[in-house]
Amino acid sequence: MLVFVDCEFTDFIQIELISIGLVAENGREFYAERNDYRREDCSDFVRAYVLPLLGRMENASCSAQELTTRLHSWFAAFDQSVTLVFDYAADWDLLADALQGEAGLPFPDNLGRNGC
Question: Which residues have a Cβ under 8 Å from the Cβ of 90 and sit 6 or more positions away?
Fold first, then answer.
């Protein structure tokens, strides 16, 4: 099962996840927005074009710790191997950090990756 990944983040220097969207080829979707990222680290571009779009989806806001739990639950619902597809390496890095969380959890057993 292919899962397409896209992330928004603070900037290229102090990179920190702001939001993440995942879409599986079967139509399943995941979206979350972090509410505990450092706003002061956001680039001017992010302040102008990303932050104004946040808060439009009900129940999307969560802490980094809650995001880790939500992601693991979402991936656990797949009964087959999942291959991640992304167009920017930082998307993988940010997702990997979110999956591992502060506790350094292992990746879900059904997870692979394939950058394009």
Answer: 7, 9, 15
